[in-house]
Specification:
122 residues, Arc Repressor Mutant, subunit A, three-stranded antiparallel sheet, alpha+beta, 5 strands, two-stranded antiparallel ribbon
Length: 122
Amino acid sequence: MSLKVSDAKPGDKKELINFDDVKKAAVIIRALNNPLRKRLIDFLLKNETATVTNIVFNLREEQTIISQHLNILRKAKIVTFLKKGKNVYYFLNKPRVAEIQKSLEGLFDEIPIEDLKKIDKP
């Protein structure tokens, strides 16, 4: 679904908004905006690769919880994995993370942080 320029009222300077892209962006931002997933990303950034067992041991969380959060990060293509025999190695998709960071910087460049904080409050 998109908001087309032709849908705008005369005098409005609205760009084309693809709401499917907005939904995708929201999924990515939600994937990043979680304390445990932030810890997972930091851990993988420092360690390059890790198995679920290694992550569970180091982050001191239950295996099922770690697996659920890795799955969310995988769906957002922030984390990827490689199977070697019985082991599954997870690692950060650094090009994807850099792409997301660049997009976020461009999105919020001109908005002061104080104004962004006001958006969530009624």
